[in-house]
Design goal:
By secondary structure, the chain is an alpha+beta fold. Helix content is 54%, strand content 16%. The strands form two sheets. Strands 2-5-6-7 form a four-stranded antiparallel sheet.
């Protein structure tokens, strides 16, 4: 635990370290996202959602001595790392991948007010516990979301589930040394966890499933069912959305004459979507 406390608070976070860290994470994320057999697993989740980047941001922020230093360095970290992810992907997927940078650009901008607020976690008081709970609450919410996916497609994403919950617990124990501040943060995080469980497994809601077709072919879709809403972006990224249970089949036709059929199963109260290629 002592080594982890030193990692989160006793490192001299110089500009050189921030730049090196941002380059490593950006290049790694772009490369790991192109390994075919790792698609839609815990190893590529870093390119899709926020859980790892939340921890990266906190790591930078708590190792800064001034609030303005934390804001600038966290902002620059995202400003360098996120475009690098897509630049690394360009040789594999083309310049169209930058359409997905819009989301991360907004995230980058939000690091400015977010880092200012998060910096006060270093004060280790009651306000710090409330502020840290925002991050840990997001982590457990993402953990439940990935647990939902992992249940239907085990063991995909299970490592991300473990990471989210372990990271939430360890951040509280590392950054909040006092018992009362820990209890407050654990309590708020527990409420977020219960909310995540309710909205994911109990309350009916529209859910979305993503997968990719051959990116060298332009695809169109044919389906007679109203169960799922199908959207194809960039000719190969497919989004299926569903709000009730059932089974259907969708058929994709490529401009090269190929046909790919998928059996779609929307199953359970959490409306998990499974899309598997028909044999």
């Amino acid at each position: 635990m002592t080594k982890l406390r030193n990692l989160f608070g006793n490192i001299n976070m110089t500009w050189l370290k921030v730049i090196i860290f941002s380059v490593i994470t950006g290049v790694y994320t772009g490369l790991i996202n192109q390994v075919p057999f790792l698609t839609d697993t815990s190893f590529t989740d870093i390119a899709v959602s926020l859980e790892f980047w939340i921890v990266f941001a906190i790591f930078i922020i708590v190792n800064c001595k001034k609030w303005w230093d934390a804001v600038l360095k966290c902002f620059v970290f995202f400003l360098i790392s996120q475009p690098l992810v897509y630049l690394v992907e360009v040789p594999f997927l083309g310049w169209g991948v930058f359409t997905y940078y819009t989301y991360w650009f907004y995230v980058t901008l939000l690091t400015i007010p977010g880092s200012f607020i998060a910096f006060w976690v270093t004060r280790k008081n009651i306000l710090s516990s409330v502020i840290l709970s925002v991050a840990t609450g997001m982590l457990v919410y993402l953990g439940i979301d990935y647990l939902n996916k992992s249940i239907y497609d085990f063991p995909h994403h299970i490592l991300t589930v473990i990471f989210c919950f372990v990271a939430a617990i360890m951040l509280i124990l590392i950054l909040l040394p006092k018992l009362n501040t820990r209890l407050i943060s654990f309590g708020i995080t527990a409420v977020a966890l219960l909310a995540a469980i309710f909205f994911t497994f109990i309350s009916p809601a529209t859910t979305t499933y993503y997968f990719e077709l051959d990116n060298k072919t332009s695809w169109s879709c044919q389906t007679d069912e109203n169960l799922v809403d199908v959207q194809i972006s960039e000719g190969y990224m497919v989004t299926l959305s569903a709000s009730h249970n059932g089974e259907t089949q969708i058929e994709f036709k490529g401009d090269d004459g190929r046909t790919v059929k998928y059996d779609v199963d929307v199953n359970g109260s959490s409306h998990i979507i499974s899309a598997k290629e028909s044999k």
